Amino acid sequence: MTDARPGVTPPVALAFGTIGFFALLIAGFGMLSLLTGAEVVAVPGLGPLPGAFAVAFAVIAFVLATWAVVRRPEPGYGGVVLVVVATFLAYLLGLLVGAMFGGIDLARALAAAGAFATSWFAVVLASTALVAGWTAVALVRTRAGRPRWPWEDRSD
């Protein structure tokens, strides 16, 4: 069986990139919080809802932006900038929406978004989106086939 397009298909690259993004984001936030003793959402009294909304919004934005990049016939690495910006802005929007659903006043919600945007956690988020988005593009661009044993015929 031969594929018209060798390498990883865009949906598979998107799945790997999304799973990697989510895993790296949770691990990165956890390690940074452990090392610095800081909370990801630094405003007290917000509860878990804004953080959960923010991560959900970021993952959705990552999926949509990465799909827009990898579905092209020859995806470019420059498109990963779109992935990073969309993911970052979606995280901030998710914080605000989550705070709204949690019954938090606008001033504290904006304070939480501003504190996140100027923290090291924002660097972790952007770096994670960059690495996972770049990986998804690299998977699609790489035209390598599956590993084969020496006795396998290349024409199979």
Automatic annotation (TrEMBL):
Pfam families xref list: DUF6121
Membrane spanning stretches: 12-32, 52-70, 77-104, 110-140
Keywords: Membrane, Transmembrane, Transmembrane helix
Protein name, UniProt field: Uncharacterized protein
Provenance organism: Microbacterium lacticum
